[in-house]
Design goal:
581 residues; alpha/beta; Gyrase A, domain 2; Isoleucyl-tRNA Synthetase, Domain 1; five-stranded parallel β-sheet; 15 strands; globular; RNA-binding
Length: 581
RNA sequence: GCCCCCUUGGCCUAAUGGACAAGGCGUCGGACUUCUAAUCCGAAGAUUGCGGGUUCGAGUCCCGCAGGGGGUGCCA
């Protein structure tokens, strides 16, 4: 149930009536008519822009349209008043009963309140993390992991059929480097002194892989050339790294539906098939690219390559798909991978990448546009970097990972719930400061705490109610006399709760899960404010001694707050706490 | 050079094209015989980087400029 959508329907119906009455001309486009909460509560509960949007096409003054529309709307029992304001806004006030019934809906629906069928069961593929299998995940990956996972949940909650997917980059040169690094650890495990030169991975996390290889193989590879051991070690090492990564993700609470291996595209004709598809559309050719201007590489020389005509689909230059040695560029398998996604029948694709992949956006969109003939939209969300702080100072750590702070380090220090919430306290394209002290602080400064505290307070009320012998399970609360909730302070909180379904749809439409985190912070704020007003006005306390009926109505409100907080935290992948300790 | 992102009170941020730009931090002043004051209330503080444009209406969309970041053929 989305009250704003309901009232918008009412507005549209009233406009249709006005057309039938001859008060408005026929054939108006109502698509831009909105009903939304006004920024200033003094303007009422909801505002519609109908009169202003329709003024020009109807060749009428906005205020004239607003006047007649106001009369129509005021006929509806839900509408207490409809006033024309400003340039032609129509401000609506709704009957208290409408708001009170929102609570009944929340208690009846539980955390499904806000769930929407907006997505129409559309199949959406969300690809995220997709880190190279060369080591443990670091903080940057953590942000992408949390963002992607929350976005996937959000889309699921809003009625999409979501697949969570991880693309394993196990086909390029970096897995050879990984295998060579493991070979060194293998020699080390057999007692040799080794040096980690430039171009190898020196992280401690490969020690145990080397030891395992030494145990399994003995010394048969000592002194042998790469051709003997490289292929097998590549396999062993990437498997080990993926085990590591899966465990890292699990520690964060992320579970993928699909792990898609880049390697599986090689030697199976899939890359060739994808490029053949582009070729059949006249988008593959042999040609020479111009050198990049301004910053020409020293070793530049013109070279004929196999190119994808991505400029036909919005890119700035055409992109090579083959290296001069005849191997594919990294782009080619990625085209094939996205071709595979399109072939699997997804209606929409989303890639979550680090901001350093920004240069990749246009060509990938061009590829998907070409492969799907413009039918499958690809949205690429770039996550900006995370800066770590401790004691107010930039913070670096390399417990076991080499030269970066790992996802494990973060989760071990602050836990998955805090990690997840904090990663969503900024829009994806804004930089994020992550301060190990602040995120554990118990104060309003820390949104995680603030929201959790609100939830814990509700739980506390429920415990107190039980102690006082007041029945307060959801069924009882759902049938409480909600008309007793008529104080302005209480209605303010209810109105915030009523925004939840609308917020979900906005967040899902824009692929912006951070909106959920911000909403929860605001809702928690409204709740804390109401709670504290009980200090001065005892009538606003949730438990009213000796008055079970009133108590139940007020507890119903508190409970509804906890339900919506639970629903929101659920989308973010955060567990609501029962009490603060 | 070209492409992408960013620029909002002293600091960090928010805002499906809607009304007087919303929070937090910091500053100043208040509220605990209570369901947890781990919270709340109030005050001061902004020409949304600059200049144009579209629109009834622009922080938001378009063009130009400046500053910061990222990217820019055989790394992924």
């Amino acid at each position: 149930m989305n009250l704003f959508a309901d009232i918008r329907t009412l507005v549209l119906d009233s406009l249709t009536d006005l057309v039938a009455d001859g008060a408005l001309p026929d054939g108006l486009n109502m698509a831009n008519v909105t009903v939304e909460p006004p920024r200033d509560a003094a303007h009422g509960d909801m505002a519609t822009n109908a009169a202003m949007v329709l003024a020009k096409p109807a060749k009428m003054k906005p205020r004239d349209i607003a006047e007649v529309l106001a009369v129509k709307l005021a006929n509806d029992p839900r509408v207490v008043s409809a006033e024309v304001a400003g340039p032609g806004f129509l401000n609506l006030r709704l009957d208290a009963g409408v708001w009170q019934s929102v609570l009944a809906t929340i208690l009846a629906s539980g955390t499904d309140y806000g769930r929407s069928d907006m997505g129409n069961g559309q199949k959406v593929n969300v690809e995220y993390v997709s880190a190279n299998p060369t080591g443990p995940l670091h903080v940057g990956h953590t942000r992408g992991a949390v963002f992607g996972d929350a976005l996937a949940s959000l889309l699921d909650y809003s009625g999409h059929d979501v697949t969570r997917e991880y693309y394993i980059n196990d086909g390029g040169g970096q897995v050879d480097t990984l295998a060579r690094s493991v070979y060194l650890r293998y020699l080390e495990a057999l007692g040799q002194d080794v040096a980690f030169e430039e171009g190898t991975y020196p992280g401690d996390y490969l020690i145990e892989v080397g030891e395992a290889v030494a145990k399994a193989k003995g010394d048969i590879w000592v002194g042998q050339s790469e051709s003997v051991w490289l292929a097998e070690l590549r396999e062993t090492s990437t498997d080990a790294m993926m085990d590591l990564i899966r465990a890292d993700l699990l520690a964060l609470g992320v579970k993928m539906d699909v792990f898609f291996s880049e390697k599986s595209l090689y030697g199976t004709g899939l890359i060739e098939a994808a490029l053949a598809d582009l070729d059949s559309k006249g988008l593959i050719y042999e040609g020479v690219l111009p050198p990049p201007k301004g910053k020409e590489p020293d070793d530049w020389e013109p070279r004929e390559q196999t190119l994808f005509k991505s400029t036909e689909h919005g890119d700035d230059v055409d992109r090579p798909v083959k290296k001069s040695d005849g191997n594919w560029t990294y782009f080619a398998p990625d085209v094939a991978y996205h071709f595979d996604k399109v072939s699997r029948g997804f209606d929409a694709l989303i890639d979550v990448l680090g901001a350093d992949h920004g240069g990749y956006v246009k060509r990938m969109k061009a590829a998907v546009s070409a492969l799907s003939e413009g039918k499958v939209p690809l949205d690429i969300k770039l996550c900006q970097l995370v800066r770590l702080y401790k004691d107010g100072q930039p913070f670096k750590m390399s417990k076991r990972s080499g030269d970066f702070v790992s996802l494990r380090d973060v989760v071990d220090l602050v836990g998955p719930d805090v990690t997840r919430f904090v990663m969503l306290t900024r829009k994806n394209d804004a930089k994020l400061d992550f301060d190990f002290d602040k995120v554990l602080e118990q104060s309003r400064e820390n949104p995680v705490f603030y929201v959790q505290y609100a939830h814990a307070r509700v739980m506390s009320v429920l415990r107190k109610a039980a102690d006082a012998g007041i029945a307060s399970d959801d069924v009882v609360l759902g049938s409480a006399d909600l008309a007793l909730l008529n104080h302005e302070a209480e209605l303010t909180v209810i109105k915030k709760l009523a925004e939840w379904p609308r917020l979900v749809e906005t967040a899902a439409r824009t692929n912006e899960p951070h909106r959920v985190a911000f909403y929860l912070y605001e809702l928690a704020g409204e709740f804390h404010a109401l709670w504290n007003r009980g200090n001065e006005l005892t009538q606003l306390r949730f438990i009213q001694d000796g008055d079970a009926a009133t108590s139940q109505a007020k507890i119903a409100l508190a409970r509804a707050v906890s339900v919506v907080i639970s629903a929101g935290l659920g989308i973010l992948g955060v567990t609501p706490v029962q009490e603060m300790r």
